[in-house]
Protein: 4'-phosphopantetheinyl transferase superfamily protein
Organism: Hominenteromicrobium mulieris
Amino acid sequence: MRRYVENVPPSLTQKELHDRAYALLYRVLKDEWGIASPVVEKTPLGKPYLKGENMPHISLSHTKGIVCCAVSRKNVGIDAEYPRRVRGSAAERVCTPAELWDIQSSPNPAARFLAYWTLKESIAKCRGTGLSESFQNYEITFQNGMPHLNGYTLFFEQYGVHFLAAAEEA
């Protein structure tokens, strides 16, 4: 899995962010994957994919200040989040009891929750289910500071103030 991130002005609209994310993807596909004229389509649940045989899998995300994409020979998902205030009930809706305990015992519970959220959204994008599936259906653990979920290779980092996560089928 390859991840690509680009800083953009924080004043961009959602449409401008969307367009910049796709521009990044098209540039990456041409320059690094040799795909000059990709055709992007979407599944019924909205997961983008490249039309054609033997094409790599793709995922895109954007948030205030950055756009990103991931390209892989396996199913892949990427998510970026800008820090924001989150209501306590949000964690209870998306996290398992063990994850909630980890969040509550963290020195920075808001940041820990956003780490889980970003990871879970990247997994949902990888699976192609988006927000149609309960995030409580899978439990992420951290082993030696690295996120883990059986069946997936997970990546997480704080990119400046942003949270960036990617998931790829193992």
Remarks:
- The chain has one domain: 1-170.
- The domain at 1-170 is CATH 3.90.470.20 (Ribosomal Protein L22; Chain A).
- The beta strands are 2-7, 40-42, 48-50, 57-63, 66-72, 76-81, 141-143, 146-148, 152-159, 162-169.
- The helical segments are 14-33, 88-94, 97-104, 109-127.
